[in-house]
Amino acid sequence: MITTSYFAREKNIPNPVCIARGKPDWSKSQDYKKLAPPWALVNRYKKGLVSTEQYTQEYTFLVLFWLNPIEVLKEITSLFGEDASLLCYEKPGDFCHRRIVAEWLEKGTGVVVPELKF
Asked: Minimal CA–CA distance to 104: which of 8, 11, 42, 19?
């Protein structure tokens, strides 16, 4: 089952996959950049120039709109395995693009993509 989590928990995750634009130097996660948000959007969000709603809309249009969720799910499981966990930086409960991705995958494929519990 594909799941989501964050880098701080990576050592407890058997198959971590980075979907962020960058990752910590110590991370051993594999990269899947197709789902990474553009730096410009990340920076504008960090500076408080876009709301979570605006970020979601822009990320959806700039990244997800151009992808097919069924093909993305097939590619992730093919490249990284059925137990891949999609990682970014924010802890559970904080706004992050990995949960936008999870909801997009769920809507587009019918496959539930939960946040890993520790």
From this structure: 19
- Contacts for 16 with CB less than 8 Å, ≥ 6 apart: 5, 10, 27, 28, 29, 30, 84, 85, 87
User: What phi-psi label fits residue 10: left (phi over 0), alpha (psi between -120 and 50 degrees) or beta?
Assistant: alpha
User: With 90 as the cut, is the pLDDT of residue 106 above it?
Assistant: yes
Q: What is the pLDDT of residue 118?
A: 79
Helices 97-109 + 69-80 axis angle, to 10? 110
> In percent, how much of the chain has pLDDT > 90?
98
Report the half-sphere exposure of 52 (CA within 13 A, side-chain side): 6
Average pLDDT over residues 34-51: 97
Contact 1, 77 (CB under 8 A): no
Q: How far apart are CA 69 and CA 111, in angstroms?
A: 10
CA distance 34 to 19: 8
Q: In Å, how far are 49, 57, 118 from 32, measured between CA atoms?
A: 27, 21, 24
The three-state secondary structure class of 39 is helix
